[in-house]
Design a protein that fits this description.
Elements lengths: L1 E8 L3 H11 L3 E3 L10 E2 L4 H22 L16 E4 H6 L6 H32 L18 E9 L3 H11 L3 E9 L2 E9 L3 H10 L3 E2 L9 H29 L3 H19 L5 E2 L3 E8 L4 H8 L6 E6 L21 H7 L10 H16 L2 H17 L4 H23 L27 H29 L3 H25 L8 H16 L2 H5 L11 H11 L1 H9 L2 H23 L6 H40 L17 E4 L13
Parallel strand pairs: 4-12
Antiparallel strand pairs: 1-10, 1-11, 2-10, 3-9, 5-7, 5-8, 6-7, 9-10
């Protein structure tokens, strides 16, 4: 990565911004401004900013509105985000599309119409609910009023208190009558009539018993006729809504353009807002950023047409610079960058662990899935997703990781003689070779291999910690902590080999003593005493501090045992597959349909087994790296390289004249 400073005359600032954004090789960061006020951020036109924000809001509205009616024309659209394909020239021409305002106006009108239809439908349905209990009343609503001598009230009372309310009315007023019209849920519709002199007493009695007066302002006909009018109105609203939806469906072909326009306008907004990161004087400007060394010539070529009004200065970053990180690995290691990115990229001057992760994760994945047939299924499935679906670069990289994992499963399955978990009796004769390890009959050996792999993996992590501290200049710290721990592990391994008589058994105890002794002394602080950085009496504390360090090595033992999960996951895959094979064999004996049931169980069962174990084969090896491995040396904390480039979410930009591209819809 190179630090680049772009210095130019103010008249070419906008041209420089547009050219940098179009090529996209530079990660711009905030330029320092002089304290004395000689420099200030490059001016931003408020009118242009406001105009872009309005255009973005309009484009987002059209995108979201048409998106409600758009159906993705892509396989597995529920899981795969649809991509819009267009050329660079088409992308740049979107902002100047004069027809978009017409599209916006029509979408806005349809949206408003649909909104008003829905509001009117809610009102009519509520009116329908309110009218239903009155449908049998043969009295026009306009006549729901008293006469000279009779008062009249219409309303509802709780159905479970109907008798109580009637009795209360009789007790209070003798000249009263109640007509039950109908029920509305847990309430009854009543027409109450009484002598006009008793009106006040009747209303007071009804009020005490939760009587709710019902009137229908604006309605005059019989309730049944008004209810029929409501039904007619609801049918009309349904028709209007369907017509509006049909028109929206006719406009949905413009959805890709709206989606792309949002990204084009956001790109334009970036080009305006980035000016605040430029330092400017009355006549000149400057901006600083990062550019990958391999793209230096690309940036120079992009800005060359501006001529002598612009100058570029490149310099190598120093240790104090907060440099963004772009991981660069060969094609075989690149898929494993997914794992590094999930944890966090390394700082620029730090060690990229991806090449070290790659072989271990490859092995761990293969051991967890552990079957030739399952590995082939993963390889084929991942390859089809990568090549047959219109997926993004990130998904393609993850599919490459799964393809390599599938290959690892094929290799480990061949070494352990696992072919779709078939038993020895069901294997063809050419596959009846002696496996390197038989997971079922040699389980203890398999567990030992897993622990041995764990020892190697953890030791590599500790070794990397030693190298990191040594290179940083803290050589004493490297020897004291990771160095002593690593030597202790080596001595412990030597002791185990001696006890197993792989090497001279008499070396067992001396190796243990050497490992424990050097760890106690070094982690106890003997070097500080010898270098006289602490008083001599601290020598008495060396054994105590050292034994605490020795006690801390117990954690390494639990780390080593964590790797037995590789055997557990491999056995889980094997036993579930074996269960499916047994069910297949049992069902095949069913008369007539047995073969169909057997094939179904075999295909569905093994597919299910691959899916569930694929998740474990990714998660658990990842956990071993993040906890047991990264915890020994890796800190992360780097920031991603984020170039100043066009926004392309859900877009695929093709060079002009690149020919017909496969994939999703085009503009």
């Amino acid at each position: 990565m190179l630090k680049v400073t772009v210095l130019g005359h103010g008249s070419v600032a906008q041209d420089a911004i547009e050219r940098q954004q179009k090529v996209g090789p530079i990660h711009i960061f905030q330029s320092d401004m002089d304290d004395d006020g000689r420099t200030a951020p490059l001016a931003i036109e408020p009118e242009r900013l406001h105009e872009l924000e309005q255009q973005i809001a309009a484009a987002q509205f059209v995108r979201d509105f048409l998106g409600r009616f758009h159906e993705a024309d892509v396989a597995f659209g529920t899981f795969v985000t649809e991509k819009i394909h267009l050329t660079v020239d088409e992308f740049e021409a979107l902002v100047a599309d004069a027809e978009f305002q017409t599209l916006y106006d029509e979408c806005d009108a349809i949206s408003d119409r649909l909104g008003s239809i829905e509001r009117e439908r809610v009102r009519q349905r509520q009116l329908e609910i309110e009218l239903l209990p009155w449908a049998d009343l043969r009295l026009q609503i306009s006549q729901w009023k008293g006469t000279e001598h009779v008062s009249m009230a219409t309303g509802t009372v709780p159905a479970n208190a109907s008798a109580l309310v009637r009795q209360a009315l009789r007790d209070a007023v003798s000249e009263v009558t109640v007509a039950e019209v109908g029920k509305a849920g847990d309430r009854e519709a009543w027409v109450v009539m009484a002598h006009f002199e008793s009106t006040t007493l009747v209303k007071a009695t009804l009020a005490l018993h939760d009587f709710v007066e019902v009137t229908f302002p604006g309605l005059a006909d019989y309730p049944a006729e008004e209810l029929a009018t409501v039904h007619t109105r609801l049918a009309d609203l349904d028709l209007e809504q369907s017509q509006a939806i049909v028109r929206a469906g006719e406009l949905v072909s413009e959805y890709p353009k709206a989606l792309a326009l949002v990204q084009a306008l956001l790109t334009g907004l970036d080009a305006v807002e980035v000016r605040s990161m430029f330092a400017a004087t009355e006549r000149a400007f400057s901006v600083t950023g990062w550019v990958p060394e391999r793209r230096r010539d690309e940036l120079v070529a992009a800005l060359a047409p501006i001529g002598t009004d612009l100058d570029l200065d490149f310099e190598v970053p120093d240790a104090e610079d907060h440099v963004p990180v772009e991981l660069i690995n060969n094609r075989w290691v690149r898929p494993f960058e997914v794992l590094t990115d999930l944890y966090g990229r390394p700082k620029y001057f730090a060690f990229d662990p991806t090449p070290v992760i790659a072989p271990f994760f490859f092995l761990f994945f293969g051991m967890c899935l552990g079957d030739v047939g399952y590995g082939v299924m993963v390889v084929v499935g991942a390859w089809l997703i990568k090549t047959r679906l219109d997926v993004g670069p990130g998904v393609k990289k993850f599919m490459d990781l799964l393809i390599l994992g599938g290959v690892a499963s094929v290799i480990w399955g061949a070494l352990t003689r696992s072919y779709l978990a078939l038993s020895v009796e069901r294997l063809p004769s050419f596959l009846l070779y002696k496996p390197m390890i038989d997971p079922q009959s040699e389980l203890i050996l398999l567990l030992g291999v897993c622990v041995a792999i764990g020892v190697v993996h953890v030791s590599v992590g500790v070794g990397l910690a030693f190298i990191t501290e040594w290179r940083s200049g803290d050589r004493e710290g490297a020897i004291t902590s990771p160095g002593s721990s690593l030597l202790f592990v080596f001595c412990l391994v030597g002791m185990v080999l001696a006890m197993a008589k792989v090497i001279d058994p008499r070396l067992a105890m001396p190796l243990l003593g050497l490992g424990a002794g050097q760890l106690v002394l070094l982690q106890g602080g003997i070097l500080d005493v010898l270098a006289r950085r602490v008083p001599a009496w601290h020598l008495a504390l060396v054994p105590l501090k050292g034994f605490l360090g020795l006690y801390g090595m117990i954690g390494y033992g639990s780390d080593f045992l964590s790797y037995t999960r590789l055997a557990a996951l491999g056995l889980a895959s094997l036993y579930v597959g074996d269960a499916m094979n047994r069910l297949t064999e049992l069902s095949s004996g069913i008369p007539y349909v047995g073969w169909l049931i057997a094939v179904t169980i075999f295909v569905v069962g093994h597919t299910f087994n691959v899916v569930i174990n694929l998740l474990g084969a990714f998660v658990h090896p990842t956990r071993l790296h993040y906890v047991e491995f990264f915890g020994k040396f890796y800190k992360g904390g780097g920031r991603n390289f984020a170039p100043f480039a066009p926004r392309t979410k859900q877009l695929v930009l093709h060079p002009q004249g690149a020919g017909e591209q496969k994939g999703g819809p085009r503009l």
